[in-house]
Design brief:
By secondary structure, this protein is mostly helical. It folds into seven domains: 38 residues; 122 residues; 111 residues, no CATH class; 89 residues, no CATH class; 224 residues, Orthogonal Bundle (Cytochrome Bc1 Complex, Chain D, domain 2); 86 residues, Cytochrome Bc1 Complex, Chain D, domain 2, CATH 1.10.760; 101 residues, Cytochrome c-like domain (Cytochrome Bc1 Complex, Chain D, domain 2, Orthogonal Bundle). The protein contains 39 helices and six strands. A hairpin with a 2-residue loop joins strand 5 and strand 6. Helix 15 crosses helix 16 and helix 33 crosses helix 34. The protein is extended, with a radius of gyration of 42 Å.
Amino acid sequence: MADNQERYYNINKLNKIFAFVSILLLAALVFLFVDDYKREWKDHQKKFRELEIEKTRQRYADESAKLGDNAQYQSLLKDLDAAKTQHKEKSGEIASEQSKFSQLTTKYDIEKQKYQFKKAEFDAAKYAFENASSHNSSDVTHLKTQLEKVEQETNVLFKLTEELNAGVVAQQGVMDQQTRQLRDMEKKRDSLARQANILARKLNLIDPQKMSFANKIANFIRDLPVLDFMNPNYRIQQVVLKDITEDVNFAHIPKVDRCMTCHLGIANPDFKDAPQPFTTHPNLELYLTSKSPHPFEEFGCTVCHQGRGRGTDFYSAVHTPSSLEQQKEWEQKKGWKKYELWEAPMYSKEHIQAGCYKCHSDQTVIKGAERLNIGLNLIEKSGCYGCHYIERYTDWVKVGPDLTFISSKLTPQWAYRWIEDPKSFRHNTWMPAFFDQSNTNDPESKKRGQQEIHSIVHYLFAKSSEFSLSDVAVSADAKKGEELVSSLGCFGCHQIEPKPVSKTMTLQSLRREHGPNLIGMGSKSSKKWLFDWLKNPKRYHPQTRMPNLRLSDEEAANITEYLSADKNNDFMNVKVPEIDPVILNEIVKDFLKKENTSAQMEEKLTKMNSEEKLQFAGEKLIRHYGCFGCHTIPGFENEKPIGTDLTEEGSKSAHRLDFGFVHMEHSPQAWFEQKLKDPRIFDQNRIKTPDEKLKMPNFCFTEDQAKAITTALLGFVKDKPEESKLPKKTMRRQMVNSGQRLVREFNCQGCHVIEGDGSAIGPSIHDWLVKYQNKSDAEAEALIKSFGPPDLIGEGKKVHAEWLFNFIHSPEVIRPWLTVRMPSFGLSAKENNDFVKYFNALDDQDFPFTQRSVGEITEDERKAAEILFSKNYFDCTSCHIVGDKMPSGTPDKWAPDFALAKTRLKPEWIAQWIKDPQSLLPGTKMPTYFDPKYFDQSGPDDVLGGDENKQIHVLRDYILTLTGQPSSESKADQPSVQQ
C-alpha cells in the first residue's frame, strides 16, 4: 500500500513537476542571458572594431612607408646605430663613472642624514636656551655653551653635505655628457616617428595579431556573458546631459543619448568614407568636437536629431526613412517598423536641418542650414504668416499689394481673371489659386467659384478710393527703357521670364524673385499708373518694399513704355462669365443662415438688390478666404489671421492631424508635404457643404519647395533646450539679428555681397555688358565686379557710422561710372540705425563712437605723400576720382571718389587698405603696393627713409585732406561706360 503520509498529493508526481519546472526555469534563464548578450549594437561594435583595426593597420603602414622614404629619418637611424655602437665600446668607462656616482651618492646620503640628526639636536638646544632665558633660569650659561657647541658641529656637517652634493651633481654631469648625444638622437627619432609609434601602441591593444596572449585571454573572459560587467570591450556608450532634461511621466530627468553605441566613428575624421553606422558626422568644425559651437558632451545627438536617445537598436532609436523605397529597404534588412508611441521620431535625412531652428529661431539666416533657410524664405515670400499666426513674424508687413486704390491700377475684368487663375498671367507668381482646386473642380463648384470671384471683385472696386494719376508728359523710347531696366539694378529683385525655366531653387534664385516677374505689364496697368508707381512707389503703397530709384521723368517714361509694350493677349481674351443671380443667392443664403433663422434669411435676401448681394457676399468671402492676410483691404484693417497657429506646429503628433481618407504615410512630415502640394486633398471622398470645405489656397509648390517648408515647420516646436544651451543674447547678436532681418526684408543681397553671400544681380550685369556694351562672355564675366554694386564685406570697419546712416537715408554717388543705382528705401530712423548697428556689429566695431580724424599733416609729410601719390610711384589718380577730376583709362579700372574719404572712411581702415587690400576684400582690383610677406623691404627706399609704416600713414593723412565737389548723377560731362 502506498504511504501518502496523510498528504492530499503525490510526492513523486510533485517531484517530477518540480524537476520539469526547474529545467524550464533554467532554460528560460539561459535564454535570458543569451538574448541579453546577443544585442544588435554588439554586432555593430564588433564590425567597427574590425574596421578600426583595418584602418589602423593601413595608417601604420602608410606612416611606416613615409618614414622609409624620409631621408632625414633614415640618416638619423644610421647615426643612432653608430652612436649606440660607440656607447657600447665605452661601456667600461661608463660603468666606472656610474660606480663613482653610486659611491658619492651613498656617502652624501649618510652625511646628509647625520646633518639632519644634528640639525634636530640644534633645534632642541636652541629651544631649551630660549626657554631658560625667558624664565631667568640658573642654567642659562650652561645651555648657551651647549648650544654654541651643537651649532658649530651642525655647520661643519652642513658644509660637508654641500661639498658632497656638489660632487654628486658634477658626477651626474659627467654621466649625462656620456649619454647626451644618444638621448638627443633618440628623442629626435621618436619625434619623427611619433605618429607611427602611437599607431603601433594602438595596434598592440586592439589587433589580435599584435596583442599579447595574456591580453587575448583577458579580453575573452571579460566579454563573456555575466562576466561582461568587468569593463568589456563591447559596451553601451552614452552621454548624460545634466542641464538638458526630458519629460518622462511628468518627471524631468537628464537627457541620456546612447546613439554613439552604434555610431562609433561620428567624431573621428578617419571614418568619413566608412559605411553607416560608422561614418564621420559631417562638418566636425561646426558639430561634435570640443572646439565647435556644438560640443558633443554638451548637446548629445537627440537635441538636434530627435529620436529616442536611450534606444540601443535600430527600432527603438526611432529612425525615420526619407522615402518609401528606403522604408521598404529598412523593413527587409533592419526589421524597421513604426514606433507608434514616440512623439518625437528622428528627423529624416531630408528634414534634418529642422533641428537647427530650436536654438536659432531668432536668426534670419542660419549658417549651414540651406534647406531650412529656403523653407523660411518661402514662408516669408508666400506670406504664410498672413493667415497663420507664427510668433517669428508678428510684426512683418503684408506680402501682397495694397488694394486701397485698386480701381486706379486694374480693371474689374483683369482682377477677375487674375483671381480665377493667377498663373495664367504670371507663371511664377506668389499669388496662390483659391478656385478650381481638388475639392472644387466639379462643374457645380466651378460655377459657384465664378460667382464668388464676381462678389470679391465687386467689393474691392466698390471700396476702392480715388487716386490721382499724372499724365506722362514726356516722349518715351521703349529701347532706352529696356536698357534702363537692365542697367539700373531692377534685376536684383525682378526678372522678365515669359516662360517657366527649370532651375534649382536656392536662396540666390529666390532673391531674383523678391519682386514680381515683369511680364504682361501692358495688359495689367495703365501707363499713367506705371509711370506714377516708378516715380514714387510709396505714394500708392506706403508699406511697399519697392524702393525709389529717383528716376527722372524721362527715365520713368522710357521704362513705362518698355514694360507696357509687353501684353498677355491670351490672358486678356479669357471670357469673363456673367453674374448668375441663382448661384449668387445661394452664396448669400449660406452666409445669412449662420446668424439668422430661415424666415429672417428669406426676408433679408428679398430686400437686397443685386449690388447689395455682391457687396455682402464679397465681404463675407474675403473674410472666409482671409484675403486681408496678404493685402490691405478697406474694412478689414483689424482682422485676425484665419488659419491655425503654426508657432509650435512641429510638435504635433500624427494623431492630431486629419488624414481623411487619403492613402498615405501617417506622419507629420508626410502630412505637411501633402498639404503644401495639394492643400485641399484631405476633402477627398467627403461630403461637405461649400462653407465646410478646406479653403487653404494652392501655391503650386514643387516637391523641393514643399520639403523645404516642411523642414521649417518641423522646426517650429515647443520643446526647446534650456537657456544655457541657446546662443547668448548679447547686444552684438541682437544687432546682427535685426540687421539680417532688414537685409532679407529689403533684399540687399539681391545686389550686394553681405556676409559672404549675395549679388544675385551678377548674371544680369553680365547680360547687360554683352548686349549693350558689346563685350564677349569672357570679358563680361571679368567685368561684373567692376560694374556691379560693391561687396559690403567689412563695411562696419570701413565707413563712419554717421556717413552710413546718411547714405542709407539719402544715397550719394560714390562710383559715378556705375549705371546700377543705389535706391532710396524710405526707411524709418530706427531701421536706418539698425542697418548701421548691424554692419558695425559684424566687424566688432564700437558703436556709435568712432575716430573721425587724424593729426595735422606737416609740410614735409605732405610733400612725401604727394610723391607717393604721383605717377612716378603709386599713381593713385589713374584709378581714383577726386571730386570733378575723372581718371584716365576705362571705367572698369576706376575707383571711388577720394573727395568723400574724409567723411566716409575710417582712418585706421584706410591705413590697412593701403597696406594690404586683399586682406580686407579678397579679389579686389586695388593693387598691393606693400608685399605682406616682405613688408619691411617692399616700400620705396627714397621716401621717408624707406619706412613703410610712415609712408602708409602720410599717404592716408594726405588722402583725408583731399577735397572737391563730389560727382553727381546729373553731370553733363559724366563719361559713358564705353570710354
